[in-house]
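We emphasize that the prediction below concerns an isolated chain of 129 residues; any contacts that depend on oligomerization or on bound cofactors are therefore not represented. The input was used exactly as deposited, without trimming of termini.
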Amino acid sequence: MNAERVEVNRLAVAWIELNQLPADVEAGVRESYSWVMDVIDDLIQADGVLAWRVIDEIRRINGSDRVLANLAAGPLEDFLVAHGGDCIAGIEEIARHDVQLRKLLAGVWRGRMSEVLWARIRSISTADR
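Result of the prediction step, given as a token string:
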């Protein structure tokens, strides 16, 4: 396994752990994971390809409703705002054969996405789930 793959997996696992913490966990425990949010946010802005790998790894490791909802409402929405126009065709291709990805996309809110991108995402996410 190469170093980049290990780093993608480490980020994904840490993000999942953070998002599975109980609501009443001590603030210090939650704060100990703040680095992962910072790194993923930075990746989304700086390296869309690597950011997509982390998002994809998260959903492949843990496809629970809770994880998918948090992933859709956070990193995936931010990723789509930053890179959706450039990668939507690839996402559409993957989603044709991937029910979980369509479910994940159904949890995204439009936010600052263009009308055209939003229409394509809605089309993917409602396609024969």
